[in-house]
Amino acid sequence: MMDILNALTVIGNFVLIPGLAYGSQLALGALGVTLVYSVLRFSNFAHGEMMSFGAMLSVLVTFWLQSAGIGLGLLPTALIALPVSILGTILLCLLIDRLVYRYYRQTRAPNVTYLIVSIGVMFTIGGLVRFIIGPSDRIFTDGSRFIIKARSFKEMTGLNEGLAIKMTQGVTLATAIVIVIAVFWFLNKTRTGKSMRAYSDNEDLALLSGINPERVVMITWVIAAALAAIAGTLYGLDKSFKPFTFLQLLLPIFAAAIVGGVGSPVGAIAGGFVIAFSELFITFAYKKVLTYLLPESLAPESLMQLLSTEYKIALSFVILVIVLLIRPTGLFSGKTL
Amino acid sequence: MFAMMAALLAIVGIFQSWNVALTIVNLCLISSIMTLGVNIQWGYAGLVNFGMMGFTALGGLAAVLIAMPPVPEAWAAGGSGVMAGLVIIIATAIVSLLIWKQLKGRGAKRYWLTALSIVIGVVIMRLVADPSIAAIESVESARTGYLGGFGLPVTLSWIAGGFVAAGAAFVIGRISLGLRSDYLAIATLGISEIVIYVLKNEDWLARGVKNINGLPRPVPYEIELQASQWVVQLADMLGASVVDVSTITVKLSYAGLFTIVLLIFLWLSEVALRSPWGRMMRAIRDNEVAANAMGKHVTARHLQVFILGSAMVGVAGAMLTTLDGQFTPASYQPLRFTFLIWVMVIVGGSGNNFGSVLGGFIVWFFWIESEPLGLWFISTITAGLADGSALKTQLVENAAHMRLMTMGIILLVMLRFAPQGLLPEQKR
């Protein structure tokens, strides 16, 4: 019995908790990609850099707050900075939409054009972020580091294995839950949310019903930008802020959105967790777990890893490619916005 | 336009140094070959391939495998095991494909059996190959620790690079060309990342992140030139130092070789564009349904053009590795090797080969030169600020990152106001 609990704790510590945190970051990112896709109908390659921009604003405001001596005690200061960064990212996105995307909407450009335009936007925001904050690594987490420390968990339960929950992981999960509930409430219950869904379903019919397309597009950008800023900040808190990581994060986010079915918000969230957990489960070394579960004579000598940890991110691309080939509509196809 | 480009390069030659100008020219030539490859796919056929980085890296790998001397100790230690592993992988792929094809329409059973055959294949492969891989990697791991190449002349690798990339493109194209444009873009981007991950982590193949240095060169070394009589005389005649003359000679000979390759590809592309084949490609691009109705096999043509374009990028990748004299998998970034090439094609003019070449030259030129230009620009506008002010130091420090933003803005402006590019496609 003790052995099983120990084995579960090992999995919890190295797979479940990191997976929940990483999965919620991916889910928030994928939700933004999916919203933009279903309303504006293109894959937004600039989404990673939007996250980067939001995270950068959080870093800057956090540093300023820290120097002013304002903090949240145990919680990271970045939570106070978050509203400012959301606002900044929203402004940036609306500005870009006004200057760049609106023209292509009016000329009804094919979606390949949008794709290439969003790459231009990606370059521009990426350059802007590096120009403002520089390419180096910034750590802006503060407050207490752990909610539960590995050692106190061991003392509490009397198990051999520890279970640590980092503060950033807790904050990530809590924020993600709140945000996701808010977004779904907005889409399903409010008038504006319903008009957005109508517009994504059938543009012409929505126009005939008197829905203002420019307003729908504006609200989509507002939500997508807010989600990007939150996801970026949470990712930065959990790991650290480096401008170039966000381009690498773009593919797992696309993978999450596509696995769940592009255009489906529920799918985006499910996809985020599918990607995160399959990355962790497949590269996890099962040696310790099996040592607890199997009788001593069968205890494995090797690490019992399916794939080495270096392939962790590559795995999400593999999943992406497989899903695209076998079921390009994703797991939740048909359940659009 | 080309005259203006030459003038720009001459300005760099005079104000910075001819050495810098020639470095830029060499990379411009390589970039132009890559843009020709993208142009065949996007400009002729309308395919969105974001996997350029992967094909470039495969070309680089070909350069290593062809030109580096073999490591007999490593072959003895684990060559047979690794080869057996490769055979098992190929067998697994064939068996899984057969299962996949045979069980069409059998529902979930099809997925499970295919997945099972892949897992079994991978497990057997790892059991067979892992000890050999470990043995190979432990052979003098500081210097070799990989199987080595064939020790053939490096220029041969340019052709090999094309074939390696073409082979990869065949596989990738077969599995992904059915996808819609933006899914194709994302899938190829993902596959190219996978290629890079494999190259980074499979040390037995090309040493992974430990890199390979000192690839043989197709042109003489500077040191040899400095010792030879005619270089010393030439330097005397020009009144320049022997070192300068020798480095410039080396770069000029690279430039000569690259120009020959570029001209061959440019000629081939132009001939293809004017031929009935080119007309058919444009017909498919402009209206797939109509072309299909006329009896053109759209998927087969797409695959063909995908392979041809990727092969060109592979050749360019092998040339790049030859020029650098080293193979560093970690240096392959999608921003530089995929998206920048796309900017070149769009700016130059998609569908026009000369436009693509021009785009390759101009964009690479500004990619390199926007650093000194940006610095100059920033120091000019901040000249009024006090020397120690925080804003000024911040601006000057980060001026180097202007180039990403510059590229983005150039791309956006071109797309908005001149979507045809600098040299638009000719109407025929």
Task: Write the SSE topology.
The complex is a heterodimer of chains A (337) and B (428).
Chain A lengths: L1 H39 L6 H22 L9 H29 L4 H23 L12 E3 L1 H8 L7 E2 H23 L1 H11 L1 H6 L4 H26 L6 H16 L4 H19 L3 H7 L18 H15 L11
Helix pairs in contact in A: 1-6, 1-9, 1-10, 1-11, 1-12, 2-3, 2-4, 2-9, 2-10, 3-4, 3-9, 6-7, 6-9, 7-9, 10-11, 10-13, 11-13
Chain B lengths: L1 H14 L2 H27 L7 H16 L4 H31 L5 H30 L16 H23 L4 H21 L1 H4 L15 H6 L1 H10 L3 H33 L1 H11 L1 H6 L4 H27 L9 H15 L4 H29 L8 H9 L3 H16 L11
Give the tally of β-strands of chain B. 0
* Helicity range of chain B: over 70%
What is the typical, i.e. mean, pLDDT of chain B? 86
CA(first)-CA(last) distance of chain A:
46 Å
Mean pLDDT of chain A: 86
Helix and strand pattern of chain B: HHHHHHHHHHHHHHHHHH
**Global Rg of chain B:** 24 Å
- Strand numbers in spatial order across the main sheet of chain A: 1-2
Backbone structural class of chain A: mainly alpha
Query: What is the helix fraction of residues of chain A, given as a range?
Result: over 70%
Tally of individual helices of chain A: 13
In terms of DSSP E residues, the strand content of chain B is: under 5%
For the report, how would you describe the main beta sheet of chain A? 2 strands, antiparallel
Overall 3D geometry of chain A?
Answer: globular
Structural class call of chain B reads mainly alpha
